[in-house]
Amino acid sequence: MSLLNKKSVCVITGASRGIGEGLAIQFAKCIAQDSVLILLARSVPDLEVVQTKVLALPECKKSNVKVIIKRFDQGSTNKEDFESLFSSIFKENNIFVSEFQQGIMIHNAGTLDETKFCKNLHYISKTGQFFQINLTGMITLNAIFLQEFSKLSKVVVNMSSLAAVMPIKSWGLYCTVKSGRDMFFKILAIEDPSIRVLNYAPGPVKTDMMNIVQTQSEDTEIQETYQKLNKEEKLLTAEMTCSKFMEILELNKFESGVHIDYYDEY
Amino acid sequence: MSLLNKKSVCVITGASRGIGEGLAIQFAKCIAQDSVLILLARSVPDLEVVQTKVLALPECKKSNVKVIIKRFDQGSTNKEDFESLFSSIFKENNIFVSEFQQGIMIHNAGTLDETKFCKNLHYISKTGQFFQINLTGMITLNAIFLQEFSKLSKVVVNMSSLAAVMPIKSWGLYCTVKSGRDMFFKILAIEDPSIRVLNYAPGPVKTDMMNIVQTQSEDTEIQETYQKLNKEEKLLTAEMTCSKFMEILELNKFESGVHIDYYDEY
Question: Might you name a Gene Ontology BP term for this protein (chains A, B) (predicted)?
């Protein structure tokens, strides 16, 4: 049975641009009547642009999907920012979780950061900050989500990457994070079989991150590989990968915790 | 050709106990004449005990292996602690790297920490500290090692775990780290084929960490599994796994970057 038919509260991190924006649009189009989208990101002005775009969709108006935006920095080291996040959103927007059937958490926020060779990763504070955003913050937010939505059925998605399963030169930190996150969500899947858990690798999508890949990766072969994909117009759009992702949730046949790539059969 | 025949500087982190101590003993027995062991850990008194034990070995006396101990906290956030580590050791001990043929870095230091279910990992500062020690500090130390030993041939070993390849309930953080580290060293291997890189999973070894596993893992089945191994005397000793590890270095037939478990054929 589709995971999109239930009246849901759907949380998307990094929702101010790129794939996060694409996800917000797709969920607004596909999710059940009277659902709520909670869009999180660091930049409120960017979130406002996405919110306006989403609310203007005819499907969104028709299904009466509510779109809430909230500033959230996953790299914060302040536990209050995490612990009070959902309760403050619920209070400010007069939402009662018990009125919903399902909670969906999409861990999309992430950074690429230092695309350097392993031998050049001696910047301890930058490396620490990278793991704070991409691992510590994400794991903490996930725990808070599971607690706040404990009484609903739940779907948890990790926006994964080819980098989770393939070592890529000069992406030491990124691959480490993506591999670790895949493992983390495999564990969530076996710890609680009632939660539907998915590691989705969106493929090479035309985003701001993809610009960094093409210009800053310390390995020039990697730069050239992605420049070529770009030149030959083989990079995906956010819409393409997000549509495919919604089909996977619609079909709902994946094994919980599995890694599915855009290019995989599913 | 064996990796143990060259006159080496061999650095072992977490060398004050458990597998780290076992490695110090084995290297002192097997490494080439006039090599130097640098043993790092947080506790100097514990390091002194290991140093005394190692220096008392007849093989160590015979091969004139020097054993240096140095306090080092891999969880430090102070970049100076990392950047000055090797240069201060070299200076204090009148060592000139150019007089050696090989540098060996054994990333053995590590913590198990919060053995909780994913839903209970909401302690942001504890989680952050865990990644600081096990990822950030290790990656930074590794970069400093590669730079300081740039002119020698190099061997880099990650003390891995079954947890790097198998999701284990209530070990969310540990598995995330171990999986990420394996990936990191696979990348090092492809970035620099001149470095011999190994991810070695030592099997279930009777250490302080194994006591935590048996008493604190939030999943009681996991506790019981390891209690049973302990009761049936199926846990390995540090000596057993370290001997096997030395055989792998001696044989030196592994593909660089590969994950080898104690129980694997190699």
Answer: tetrahydrobiopterin biosynthetic process
